[in-house]
Description:
The chain is an alpha+beta fold and 540 residues long. Helix content is 42%, strand content 16%. It has helices spanning 2-5, 19-26, 49-52, 62-68, 81-94, 114-123, 146-168, 180-187, 200-208, 221-228, 235-240, 243-250, 253-263, 292-313, 356-373, 401-404, 408-412, 419-427, 456-460, 484-489, 496-501, 504-520, 527-539, and strands at residues 11-16, 36-40, 43-47, 60-61, 73-76, 101-104, 108-112, 133-135, 172-177, 195-198, 279-289, 315-316, 319-326, 334-341, 382-390, 393-394, 433-435. Helix 12 packs across helix 13 and helix 14 packs across helix 18. The N and C termini lie far apart (54 Å). Bound molecules: 2'-deoxycytidine-5'-triphosphate (DCP) and magnesium ion (2 copies). Residues 15-20, 45-46, 58-59, 106-107, 191-192, 447, 453, 459 line the site of 2'-deoxycytidine-5'-triphosphate (DCP).
Amino acid sequence: MEEEKSHLRTIIHIDIDCFYAQVELQSAPNLVNEPIGIKQKNIVVTCNYVARQYGIKKCMLIADAMKLCPKIILFNGEDLYKYRQASNQIHSLLKTFVNDVEKLGFDENYLDVTELVAERLQKNKTYTNPVGHYIGNFNNACSCGCHVRLVTGSEIAFEIRQKLKRDLDFTSCCGISYNKLLAKIACSAHKPNQQTIMFPNGAIKYLSTLGDVAMIPGIGFKTKESLLSINIKTVKDLQAADIKALNKVFKNEETAMTVKNLSIGICTSSVKKSSKPLSLGLECGAQKISLELDVKQKFENLLHRLLILVEEDGRIPNTVKVTIRKQGEGKIAQKETKQSPVSSSLFTHPISQLKKESINKLLNIIMDLFKKIVNVSRPFHVTLLGLSFSKFHEKHLNSSIASFLLKKGDLSVQSTTNLKSIENFVEAVDEKMIICSKVDSDSEVEPSPKKPKLDVSLSQIKLEEEKNVSSPSKLKVESLNLNEDLELTKNMNIDQDTFNELPYDIQQEIIREYNIKYLKMKHVPCSKQSLITSYCISNH
Ligand code: DCP
Ligand code: MG
Ligand code: MG
């Protein structure tokens, strides 16, 4: 009875078939029946299902793939721009069905369709058959009524897959169950372009056929190692494991129970609505960078690429951060970071029309930060350069404080950098580029290009265990006197450094309160503040 309470939700897990390959084939539809692969460095990161018939697998060495299928056509997949764009379109389409959509990686999403199912069942009481495949005994229905809910969920999943095909031309797979774990496992049961329901009466048996414990989403490398130490290798072994033995190895009863529960299909994790990342960043690694000119050029490349991400994101960043890995003599290389506020006025939208002067200003800030970490008057050896933007705020440039604070100089610049030239620029970058966008949940982990995947099943596991969330740097913010908001705060009798460390929203709240106070006092101290004041009047 207690178990049945856990069947109340209806969750859909959706995964796009051979994602990168489908994206590439959209611009080469004549190749749809040919074996194609997507390469990053010396690896085929994915391939279409025609190529899979030759035995080619995801993350195979190109040399091995060529042996299996010499006529395979390879696309270069090192620039993630198209994939990221498609990924965002897919996520937006899914959000037209329900609000609660959690993005997992580039091509996977969870949808909690519990309410939608309830609405449909209320309107339409007729009992329908499952759409697609199912695991478990459909005729031996659970007394809690979840069979009917899951069948309704399978209708919704079918509609979603149809819409994805019709609107965005992607085929996909869906798993439908009463929790995230089982929905994800069901999704992989029949591929490609199919869907599967996992009924509760089929879950334990199906899980026992998965083999390696690492096949369970949520069991990562460390957990697998701990389990191996007590000779638990397969899901079946884990299902039969003595909880006392697990308590001993994990030294924590809760963890032991969670791990054991996963093996029998119990998972209480909720679908967390994906939010935008806290920061957007890129890194560029190299054997040796020792000239200031090279550093500047590499930062310029990173900046152009990063601005494309900012454009797609749609928000305006308020802080820029530089990361450097220095190779000291005889010392172990360590990463160092410095950050600085940046003025909103530098970011006009669309970014494609960003003024050259703004880009140069940003580059100067970046180089100043670099020089705070590296003494360029002496020989230096850097092996990694990183750039990120953070402290975002939603853009409403026409009505925001930022637009009132636009500097006259920023408006007078003529030349623009268009997006096409930015893209061309990006192609010229040959070092390993790593997207290091960290998010405030485990929802989006973007695959790094050119990175061999040692174990496909392990890297797929991103549920609870391997949260790799970077905390915002606690480094003191160096004011470069370029942020008008900050200039304003100098009049406000508050500690500048403390103010710099505050999240953007709170900074704005303080400024707003300050101005409201001034309004009450009928005193407007300077022209910039009077602009903010007028903003306050028109918006409150
Ligand atoms: N990817 C990557 N590096 C990895 C794993 C994946 O670059 N180590 C990329 C290529 C894939 C995309 O992420 O197209 C989605 O990963 P999937 O595991 O979902 O693989 P596919 O969508 O390609 O194939 P499938 O049909 O098996 O889902
Ligand atoms: Mg996929
Ligand atoms: Mg996937």
